[in-house]
Amino acid sequence: MQIDKNANSPARERLALLFDDGIYSEINSMVREKDALTGVVTAYGYVNGNAVYAYSQDKTVNSAAMGIKQAEKITKLYELAAKTGAPIVGIHDSNGAYVDGTAASLAAYGKIIEAASKVSGVVPQISVITGTCAGSAALIACSSDFVIMTKESELFMAPCSNDNPGTAQKAAEAGLASLLCNDDKSALDKARELINLLPVNNLSAVPMFEYNESGTAPASDLESLTGSVADADSIIEIGSEYGTSAYTALASIGGTAAGIAATNKSKEKLTADDCAKLARFMRTCDAFSIPVVTFVDTEGFADGNTISGIKAMTLLANSYAEATTVKISVVTGKSSGPVFTAVAGSSSGSDFTFAWENAVISPFASETAVEFLWHDKLRGAENLEAKRKELTAEYEASLASAASAAEGNYIDEIISSADTRKAVMSAFDILSGKRVQKLPKKHNNIPF
Q: CA of 423: how far to CAs of 253, 390, 418, 426, in Å?
Protein backbone atom coordinates (compact mmCIF):
# COMPACT_ATOMS: atom_id res chain seq x y z
CA MET A 1 0.00 0.00 0.00
CA GLN A 2 1.35 3.40 -0.96
CA ILE A 3 1.78 5.85 1.92
CA ASP A 4 0.35 9.22 0.89
CA LYS A 5 2.18 11.30 3.45
CA ASN A 6 3.76 14.60 2.42
CA ALA A 7 7.47 14.35 3.16
CA ASN A 8 7.84 18.12 2.70
CA SER A 9 5.00 19.23 4.96
CA PRO A 10 5.60 22.07 7.44
CA ALA A 11 5.03 19.55 10.23
CA ARG A 12 7.99 17.41 9.15
CA GLU A 13 10.13 20.47 8.44
CA ARG A 14 9.56 21.61 12.02
CA LEU A 15 10.54 18.22 13.39
CA ALA A 16 13.72 18.37 11.32
CA LEU A 17 14.51 21.75 12.92
CA LEU A 18 14.04 20.24 16.38
CA PHE A 19 16.05 17.03 16.10
CA ASP A 20 19.83 16.75 15.75
CA ASP A 21 20.90 16.90 12.09
CA GLY A 22 17.21 16.85 11.12
CA ILE A 23 17.07 13.10 11.76
CA TYR A 24 14.11 11.44 13.46
CA SER A 25 12.10 8.22 13.35
CA GLU A 26 8.40 8.54 12.62
CA ILE A 27 5.96 6.16 14.31
CA ASN A 28 2.35 5.22 13.56
CA SER A 29 2.75 6.96 10.21
CA MET A 30 0.02 4.92 8.47
CA VAL A 31 -2.78 5.50 10.97
CA ARG A 32 -5.80 6.93 9.20
CA GLU A 33 -8.67 9.09 10.38
CA LYS A 34 -11.82 9.70 8.37
CA ASP A 35 -10.66 9.64 4.73
CA ALA A 36 -6.97 10.49 5.14
CA LEU A 37 -3.92 10.07 7.31
CA THR A 38 -4.13 11.65 10.73
CA GLY A 39 -3.17 15.31 10.86
CA VAL A 40 -0.18 14.81 13.13
CA VAL A 41 3.33 13.44 12.75
CA THR A 42 4.65 11.59 15.81
CA ALA A 43 8.31 10.78 16.15
CA TYR A 44 11.36 10.27 18.33
CA GLY A 45 14.98 11.24 17.95
CA TYR A 46 17.76 13.12 19.70
CA VAL A 47 18.18 16.75 20.75
CA ASN A 48 21.69 17.68 21.79
CA GLY A 49 22.25 13.94 22.19
CA ASN A 50 19.24 13.49 24.51
CA ALA A 51 16.37 11.18 23.57
CA VAL A 52 13.20 13.21 22.93
CA TYR A 53 9.66 12.41 21.77
CA ALA A 54 7.81 14.97 19.66
CA TYR A 55 4.64 15.45 17.70
CA SER A 56 3.96 18.05 15.05
CA GLN A 57 0.47 18.80 13.78
CA ASP A 58 0.20 18.65 10.00
CA LYS A 59 -2.14 21.33 8.68
CA THR A 60 -1.80 19.99 5.14
CA VAL A 61 -3.95 17.01 6.19
CA ASN A 62 -7.57 17.96 6.99
CA SER A 63 -6.34 21.18 8.62
CA ALA A 64 -4.75 18.95 11.31
CA ALA A 65 -8.20 18.44 12.80
CA MET A 66 -8.09 16.57 16.12
CA GLY A 67 -9.86 13.24 16.23
CA ILE A 68 -9.66 10.05 18.26
CA LYS A 69 -6.88 8.55 16.09
CA GLN A 70 -4.71 11.68 16.28
CA ALA A 71 -5.24 11.68 20.06
CA GLU A 72 -4.21 8.02 20.26
CA LYS A 73 -0.99 8.73 18.36
CA ILE A 74 -0.11 11.65 20.64
CA THR A 75 -1.09 9.76 23.79
CA LYS A 76 1.26 6.93 22.83
CA LEU A 77 4.16 9.41 22.89
CA TYR A 78 3.28 10.44 26.44
CA GLU A 79 3.13 6.79 27.46
CA LEU A 80 6.56 6.17 25.92
CA ALA A 81 7.93 9.27 27.64
CA ALA A 82 6.66 7.96 30.97
CA LYS A 83 8.25 4.54 30.39
CA THR A 84 11.63 5.83 29.27
CA GLY A 85 11.91 9.13 31.16
CA ALA A 86 12.47 11.32 28.11
CA PRO A 87 11.18 14.87 27.42
CA ILE A 88 8.27 15.49 25.07
CA VAL A 89 7.76 18.40 22.67
CA GLY A 90 4.39 19.24 21.12
CA ILE A 91 4.32 21.44 18.02
CA HIS A 92 0.84 22.92 17.66
CA ASP A 93 -0.73 24.13 14.43
CA SER A 94 -4.36 23.08 13.94
CA ASN A 95 -7.71 24.73 13.27
CA GLY A 96 -9.35 22.61 15.96
CA ALA A 97 -11.21 19.30 16.17
CA TYR A 98 -13.52 17.31 13.94
CA VAL A 99 -17.02 18.54 14.72
CA ASP A 100 -19.77 15.98 14.21
CA GLY A 101 -22.14 16.93 17.01
CA THR A 102 -20.95 14.13 19.30
CA ALA A 103 -18.61 14.08 22.28
CA ALA A 104 -15.86 12.46 20.19
CA SER A 105 -13.68 15.57 20.05
CA LEU A 106 -14.01 16.08 23.80
CA ALA A 107 -12.89 12.50 24.38
CA ALA A 108 -9.94 12.98 22.02
CA TYR A 109 -8.64 16.05 23.81
CA GLY A 110 -9.37 14.43 27.17
CA LYS A 111 -7.06 11.51 26.36
CA ILE A 112 -4.14 13.86 25.77
CA ILE A 113 -4.83 16.08 28.78
CA GLU A 114 -4.91 13.02 31.02
CA ALA A 115 -1.68 11.65 29.54
CA ALA A 116 0.09 15.00 29.87
CA SER A 117 -1.05 15.36 33.46
CA LYS A 118 0.39 11.97 34.39
CA VAL A 119 3.90 12.91 33.33
CA SER A 120 3.76 16.53 34.54
CA GLY A 121 6.75 17.03 36.80
CA VAL A 122 8.16 13.66 35.70
CA VAL A 123 9.56 14.59 32.27
CA PRO A 124 9.95 18.10 30.84
CA GLN A 125 7.13 19.12 28.51
CA ILE A 126 7.57 21.92 25.97
CA SER A 127 4.84 23.26 23.69
CA VAL A 128 5.80 25.14 20.55
CA ILE A 129 2.89 27.02 18.94
CA THR A 130 3.73 27.80 15.33
CA GLY A 131 0.24 28.53 14.00
CA THR A 132 -3.21 28.22 15.51
CA CYS A 133 -3.78 26.53 18.87
CA ALA A 134 -7.53 26.71 19.48
CA GLY A 135 -10.18 25.24 21.73
CA SER A 136 -9.22 22.42 24.07
CA ALA A 137 -5.82 22.24 22.39
CA ALA A 138 -4.98 25.41 24.33
CA LEU A 139 -5.43 23.45 27.56
CA ILE A 140 -2.92 20.86 26.35
CA ALA A 141 -0.35 23.43 25.27
CA CYS A 142 -0.61 25.47 28.46
CA SER A 143 -0.22 22.36 30.62
CA SER A 144 3.41 22.19 29.51
CA ASP A 145 6.33 23.40 31.59
CA PHE A 146 7.21 25.93 28.90
CA VAL A 147 5.19 27.41 26.03
CA ILE A 148 7.08 28.91 23.09
CA MET A 149 5.09 30.90 20.53
CA THR A 150 6.03 32.43 17.20
CA LYS A 151 4.95 36.07 17.05
CA GLU A 152 2.30 35.42 14.40
CA SER A 153 0.78 32.38 16.14
CA GLU A 154 -2.55 32.35 17.98
CA LEU A 155 -3.80 30.85 21.24
CA PHE A 156 -7.46 30.89 22.21
CA MET A 157 -10.36 28.77 23.45
CA ALA A 158 -13.05 30.39 21.29
CA PRO A 159 -12.89 32.90 18.42
CA CYS A 160 -11.51 36.11 19.86
CA SER A 161 -12.80 39.65 19.64
CA ASN A 162 -10.89 42.84 19.00
CA ASP A 163 -10.99 43.51 22.73
CA ASN A 164 -9.56 40.09 23.55
CA PRO A 165 -7.31 38.94 20.71
CA GLY A 166 -5.62 35.57 21.01
CA THR A 167 -2.26 36.90 19.87
CA ALA A 168 1.10 35.62 20.99
CA GLN A 169 1.82 39.00 22.59
CA LYS A 170 -1.35 38.80 24.68
CA ALA A 171 -0.49 35.25 25.72
CA ALA A 172 2.95 36.43 26.83
CA GLU A 173 1.50 39.35 28.79
CA ALA A 174 -0.88 36.92 30.54
CA GLY A 175 1.97 34.64 31.55
CA LEU A 176 0.95 31.76 29.27
CA ALA A 177 3.75 32.10 26.71
CA SER A 178 7.20 31.66 28.23
CA LEU A 179 9.05 32.84 25.12
CA LEU A 180 8.16 34.72 21.94
CA CYS A 181 10.15 34.02 18.77
CA ASN A 182 10.17 35.52 15.29
CA ASP A 183 9.70 32.31 13.31
CA ASP A 184 9.60 28.51 13.42
CA LYS A 185 13.36 28.08 13.36
CA SER A 186 14.05 30.45 16.25
CA ALA A 187 11.20 28.87 18.26
CA LEU A 188 12.55 25.36 17.79
CA ASP A 189 16.09 26.56 18.48
CA LYS A 190 14.80 27.83 21.84
CA ALA A 191 13.16 24.48 22.49
CA ARG A 192 16.54 22.82 21.85
CA GLU A 193 18.23 25.25 24.26
CA LEU A 194 15.66 24.55 26.98
CA ILE A 195 16.04 20.77 26.56
CA ASN A 196 19.80 21.22 26.91
CA LEU A 197 19.40 23.01 30.28
CA LEU A 198 16.74 20.69 31.72
CA PRO A 199 17.29 17.24 33.27
CA VAL A 200 15.76 14.58 31.04
CA ASN A 201 13.42 13.60 33.89
CA ASN A 202 12.80 14.19 37.59
CA LEU A 203 15.20 11.42 38.68
CA SER A 204 18.12 12.49 36.51
CA ALA A 205 20.99 14.69 37.62
CA VAL A 206 21.05 18.35 36.66
CA PRO A 207 23.01 18.82 33.41
CA MET A 208 26.68 19.84 33.68
CA PHE A 209 28.57 21.76 31.00
CA GLU A 210 31.92 23.08 29.99
CA TYR A 211 31.59 26.81 30.48
CA ASN A 212 33.17 30.19 29.90
CA GLU A 213 33.54 32.62 32.79
CA SER A 214 31.23 35.60 32.81
CA GLY A 215 32.79 38.74 31.41
CA THR A 216 30.31 41.09 33.10
CA ALA A 217 31.30 43.11 36.14
CA PRO A 218 28.89 42.74 39.08
CA ALA A 219 26.58 45.70 39.69
CA SER A 220 23.26 46.44 41.30
CA ASP A 221 21.34 46.62 38.01
CA LEU A 222 19.74 43.29 37.22
CA GLU A 223 21.25 42.74 33.78
CA SER A 224 24.79 43.23 35.07
CA LEU A 225 24.11 41.19 38.20
CA THR A 226 22.71 38.12 36.43
CA GLY A 227 25.31 38.43 33.70
CA SER A 228 28.10 38.43 36.29
CA VAL A 229 26.78 35.34 38.10
CA ALA A 230 25.73 33.15 35.15
CA ASP A 231 28.19 31.58 32.74
CA ALA A 232 28.80 33.57 29.57
CA ASP A 233 26.00 33.38 26.96
CA SER A 234 23.95 30.88 28.95
CA ILE A 235 20.89 32.90 30.10
CA ILE A 236 17.40 32.21 28.75
CA GLU A 237 14.91 34.64 30.29
CA ILE A 238 11.48 33.12 30.92
CA GLY A 239 8.25 35.13 30.82
CA SER A 240 9.75 38.54 30.16
CA GLU A 241 6.38 40.09 29.23
CA TYR A 242 4.58 38.98 32.40
CA GLY A 243 5.01 40.06 36.00
CA THR A 244 7.54 42.63 34.91
CA SER A 245 8.79 43.52 38.39
CA ALA A 246 10.02 39.93 38.75
CA TYR A 247 12.67 38.17 36.70
CA THR A 248 13.09 34.47 35.95
CA ALA A 249 15.64 32.70 33.79
CA LEU A 250 17.39 29.41 33.19
CA ALA A 251 21.16 29.48 32.83
CA SER A 252 24.30 27.65 33.83
CA ILE A 253 26.39 28.76 36.79
CA GLY A 254 29.84 27.23 37.06
CA GLY A 255 28.75 24.66 34.50
CA THR A 256 25.64 23.62 36.47
CA ALA A 257 22.16 24.20 35.07
CA ALA A 258 20.33 26.58 37.41
CA GLY A 259 17.35 28.82 37.82
CA ILE A 260 17.76 32.54 38.47
CA ALA A 261 14.94 34.52 40.07
CA ALA A 262 14.94 38.16 41.08
CA THR A 263 12.50 40.63 42.56
CA ASN A 264 14.09 43.78 41.21
CA LYS A 265 13.61 43.86 37.46
CA SER A 266 11.80 47.19 37.38
CA LYS A 267 12.51 48.35 40.95
CA GLU A 268 8.77 48.29 41.68
CA LYS A 269 6.95 46.44 44.44
CA LEU A 270 5.81 42.90 43.64
CA THR A 271 2.31 42.56 42.21
CA ALA A 272 0.09 39.48 42.17
CA ASP A 273 1.42 38.67 38.67
CA ASP A 274 5.00 38.92 39.91
CA CYS A 275 4.21 36.53 42.77
CA ALA A 276 2.57 34.04 40.41
CA LYS A 277 5.51 34.22 38.01
CA LEU A 278 8.09 33.57 40.74
CA ALA A 279 5.97 30.82 42.32
CA ARG A 280 5.46 28.93 39.04
CA PHE A 281 9.14 29.22 38.21
CA MET A 282 10.17 27.83 41.59
CA ARG A 283 7.72 24.95 41.28
CA THR A 284 9.04 24.13 37.79
CA CYS A 285 12.66 24.14 38.93
CA ASP A 286 11.78 22.14 42.04
CA ALA A 287 9.99 19.46 39.99
CA PHE A 288 13.29 18.68 38.27
CA SER A 289 15.62 19.51 41.20
CA ILE A 290 17.17 22.47 39.40
CA PRO A 291 18.99 24.68 41.95
CA VAL A 292 17.68 28.24 42.23
CA VAL A 293 19.38 31.47 43.26
CA THR A 294 17.04 34.34 44.17
CA PHE A 295 18.24 37.95 44.19
CA VAL A 296 16.17 40.17 46.48
CA ASP A 297 15.89 43.95 46.18
CA THR A 298 12.36 45.25 46.67
CA GLU A 299 10.31 47.54 48.88
CA GLY A 300 7.79 44.74 49.36
CA PHE A 301 4.40 43.72 47.98
CA ALA A 302 2.28 46.18 46.02
CA ASP A 303 -1.08 44.57 46.86
CA GLY A 304 -0.54 43.67 50.49
CA ASN A 305 -3.67 45.53 51.55
CA THR A 306 -5.97 43.57 49.20
CA ILE A 307 -7.45 40.09 49.50
CA SER A 308 -6.14 39.09 46.06
CA GLY A 309 -2.71 40.37 47.04
CA ILE A 310 -2.68 38.28 50.20
CA LYS A 311 -3.58 35.19 48.15
CA ALA A 312 -0.73 35.85 45.73
CA MET A 313 1.74 36.41 48.55
CA THR A 314 0.63 33.17 50.20
CA LEU A 315 1.09 31.30 46.91
CA LEU A 316 4.62 32.65 46.59
CA ALA A 317 5.61 31.92 50.18
CA ASN A 318 4.24 28.37 50.05
CA SER A 319 5.87 27.61 46.69
CA TYR A 320 9.27 28.53 48.09
CA ALA A 321 8.71 26.78 51.41
CA GLU A 322 7.50 23.56 49.77
CA ALA A 323 10.39 23.37 47.28
CA THR A 324 13.17 20.98 48.29
CA THR A 325 15.63 21.78 45.53
CA VAL A 326 18.81 23.71 46.37
CA LYS A 327 17.81 27.30 47.21
CA ILE A 328 20.21 30.21 47.64
CA SER A 329 19.03 33.76 48.38
CA VAL A 330 21.09 36.94 48.03
CA VAL A 331 19.78 40.25 49.37
CA THR A 332 21.40 42.80 47.06
CA GLY A 333 19.46 45.89 48.16
CA LYS A 334 16.33 46.33 50.22
CA SER A 335 14.20 43.48 51.51
CA SER A 336 11.25 45.11 53.21
CA GLY A 337 8.37 43.35 54.88
CA PRO A 338 7.20 39.80 54.27
CA VAL A 339 9.15 39.46 50.99
CA PHE A 340 12.18 38.42 53.04
CA THR A 341 10.05 35.83 54.82
CA ALA A 342 8.64 34.53 51.53
CA VAL A 343 11.77 34.11 49.41
CA ALA A 344 14.89 34.65 51.49
CA GLY A 345 14.48 33.86 55.19
CA SER A 346 14.61 30.52 56.94
CA SER A 347 10.85 30.12 56.50
CA SER A 348 11.39 29.97 52.72
CA GLY A 349 13.64 26.95 53.22
CA SER A 350 16.65 28.81 51.85
CA ASP A 351 19.77 26.69 52.32
CA PHE A 352 21.99 29.77 52.45
CA THR A 353 20.94 33.39 52.70
CA PHE A 354 23.62 35.93 51.80
CA ALA A 355 23.48 39.72 51.83
CA TRP A 356 25.64 42.43 50.31
CA GLU A 357 27.31 44.84 52.75
CA ASN A 358 24.83 47.66 52.03
CA ALA A 359 21.70 45.47 52.15
CA VAL A 360 18.69 46.58 54.18
CA ILE A 361 16.50 43.96 55.85
CA SER A 362 13.54 45.39 57.73
CA PRO A 363 10.02 44.35 58.79
CA PHE A 364 8.55 47.29 56.89
CA ALA A 365 9.69 50.26 54.80
CA SER A 366 12.49 52.22 56.44
CA GLU A 367 10.48 55.44 56.57
CA THR A 368 7.62 53.63 58.27
CA ALA A 369 10.02 52.07 60.77
CA VAL A 370 11.38 55.50 61.67
CA GLU A 371 7.87 56.86 62.25
CA PHE A 372 6.99 53.85 64.40
CA LEU A 373 10.20 53.41 66.38
CA TRP A 374 11.69 56.89 66.56
CA HIS A 375 8.69 59.19 66.49
CA ASP A 376 10.02 61.03 69.53
CA LYS A 377 13.20 61.92 67.64
CA LEU A 378 11.10 63.50 64.91
CA ARG A 379 9.04 65.59 67.28
CA GLY A 380 10.03 69.25 67.29
CA ALA A 381 12.45 68.98 64.36
CA GLU A 382 12.94 72.33 62.60
CA ASN A 383 13.19 70.61 59.22
CA LEU A 384 11.03 67.50 59.49
CA GLU A 385 11.89 66.14 56.06
CA ALA A 386 15.63 66.48 56.60
CA LYS A 387 15.35 64.88 60.04
CA ARG A 388 13.31 61.99 58.66
CA LYS A 389 15.92 61.42 55.95
CA GLU A 390 18.71 61.48 58.53
CA LEU A 391 16.94 58.99 60.81
CA THR A 392 16.09 56.71 57.88
CA ALA A 393 19.77 56.50 56.96
CA GLU A 394 20.62 55.83 60.62
CA TYR A 395 18.00 53.06 60.81
CA GLU A 396 19.25 51.38 57.64
CA ALA A 397 22.82 51.52 58.93
CA SER A 398 21.92 50.07 62.32
CA LEU A 399 18.81 48.00 63.10
CA ALA A 400 18.06 47.17 59.45
CA SER A 401 21.64 46.61 58.32
CA ALA A 402 23.10 43.39 56.96
CA ALA A 403 25.40 43.30 59.98
CA SER A 404 22.42 43.44 62.35
CA ALA A 405 20.71 40.59 60.46
CA ALA A 406 23.91 38.52 60.55
CA GLU A 407 24.38 39.11 64.28
CA GLY A 408 20.82 37.91 64.88
CA ASN A 409 21.44 34.80 62.73
CA TYR A 410 18.79 35.86 60.20
CA ILE A 411 21.27 35.61 57.31
CA ASP A 412 24.21 33.26 56.91
CA GLU A 413 26.94 35.55 55.64
CA ILE A 414 27.68 39.02 54.33
CA ILE A 415 29.40 38.99 50.93
CA SER A 416 30.69 41.63 48.57
CA SER A 417 29.03 42.12 45.20
CA ALA A 418 32.28 41.05 43.55
CA ASP A 419 32.18 37.70 45.36
CA THR A 420 28.57 36.84 44.48
CA ARG A 421 29.35 34.38 41.69
CA LYS A 422 32.02 32.68 43.80
CA ALA A 423 29.63 32.38 46.77
CA VAL A 424 26.78 30.97 44.67
CA MET A 425 29.04 28.45 42.91
CA SER A 426 30.51 27.31 46.22
CA ALA A 427 27.04 26.90 47.75
CA PHE A 428 25.75 24.95 44.75
CA ASP A 429 28.76 22.65 44.95
CA ILE A 430 28.49 21.84 48.66
CA LEU A 431 24.71 21.38 48.40
CA SER A 432 24.81 19.11 45.34
CA GLY A 433 24.05 16.09 47.50
CA LYS A 434 21.06 17.69 49.23
CA ARG A 435 18.34 15.23 50.20
CA VAL A 436 15.07 16.11 51.92
CA GLN A 437 12.50 13.60 53.15
CA LYS A 438 8.96 14.99 53.08
CA LEU A 439 6.08 14.02 55.29
CA PRO A 440 3.83 11.48 53.53
CA LYS A 441 1.19 13.40 51.55
CA LYS A 442 -0.02 13.82 47.99
CA HIS A 443 0.94 17.49 47.64
CA ASN A 444 0.78 20.83 49.34
CA ASN A 445 -2.59 22.63 49.18
CA ILE A 446 -1.43 26.00 47.88
CA PRO A 447 -4.07 28.67 47.09
CA PHE A 448 -4.18 29.39 43.35
A: 11, 33, 10, 5
